[in-house]
Design goal:
This protein has helices at 103-111, 116-122, 129-149, 160-177; strands at residues 17-22, 29-34, 39-45, 50-54, 62-68, 71-77, 82-89, 94-100. The protein is α+β, with helices and mostly antiparallel strands and 180 residues long.
């Protein structure tokens, strides 16, 4: 007998919270920033290796950046998300693990990369216009399929707002090919 597990999405939280742990006692705060200018959204003090804050202002969904000591990282989040960041800094390396309501979205960034558009950009001159258009359409369809089918090992898929944003960013990558 086999078990069919249906992918699920994680529901939003009732408020916007960012929390976590830092193993390095020299880290005094964690800063959440929004690009492209890295404007500070919130600066959270680290007390006894932990940090916790509620973001009271609406937080538009999107890519943010965080800094904990010398560690810099990306994080996808938005309003009504609960995010937990485990920061590990040691002599060998620095890393972070992100969980919470946007765990599948952040997992996507950690685990999925396609060089398909890089290939198209680098090989544009080796195709006829019709062949290139066909390659471009095939790549678009493959990327959309991969995005729609992405799920974590626990069968959790990204939320719809994330999928919409990623599809728009794919379209921008295609437009960027025209500039090459």
């Amino acid at each position: 007998a086999s078990i069919l597990i249906k992918p699920v999405t994680i529901s939003r939280y009732h408020k916007t919270v960012i929390a976590g742990t830092v193993n390095d006692k020299t880290v005094k705060d964690v800063v959440l920033m929004k690009g492209p200018n890295l404007d500070t959204v919130i600066k959270i003090p680290v007390i006894n290796g932990s940090f916790l804050a509620e973001v009271s202002e609406p937080l538009p969904v999107g890519q943010y950046f965080f800094r904990a000591g010398q560690l810099r990282g990306n994080i996808f989040m938005g309003d009504k998300d609960s995010t937990f960041i485990e920061v590990v800094i040691n002599e060998e390396n620095e890393r972070s693990k992100i969980t919470g309501t946007r765990m599948p979205e952040n997992s996507f960034f950690e685990n999925y990369y396609s060089g398909a558009f890089d290939y198209l950009k680098g090989s544009a001159y080796s195709f006829s216009p019709n062949e290139y258009a066909k390659e471009l359409l095939n790549t678009w369809n493959d990327e959309i399929k991969n995005l729609n089918n992405f799920k974590t090992n626990d069968q959790v898929r990204p939320s719809d707002d994330f999928l919409v944003i990623q599809k728009k960013l794919l379209a921008i990558r295609i437009i960027g090919l025209a500039d090459y």
